[in-house]
# Entry
Amino acid sequence: MAVRACGLIIYRRLQPAPCSKVTGSIEYLLLQTSYGTHHWTPPKGHVDPGEDDLQTAFRETQEEAGLQASQLTLIEGYKKELHYLVHGKPKTVVYWLAEMKDCNTEIKLSEEHQAFQWLKLEDACKFAEYEDMQATLKEVDQFLCSRE
# Structure
């Protein structure tokens, strides 16, 4: 049985822009873990008993980044499931997409993370070392551009 985790890919728009400029106005939130290899990832975590996947994503975002569900807008039509191995065991991570309502909202990290950054797509892909996360961030960017 695969370990299951859920999270939110959170972005903010620095200013409204037409699609041709959309990538220049969007930044993605990545958190740096305070354990292991200190990798960068969107907020995510394991599903607790009795929780559904989306509840987990919002709870983990609140715990890890200090963001309440009321501070985010869930973007309809985007959900991504990633499958990979961690220490030889299968893991499934489900991500939804959410936009910050106020791009100046303060991020409050838990002890699980030591740093956060708002990054444009190119930099976010450099920080997110795993290919599947890089591909997911690019897919999100294309998805957002297609909705303009």
Remarks:
- The first strand starts at residue 3 and ends at 13.
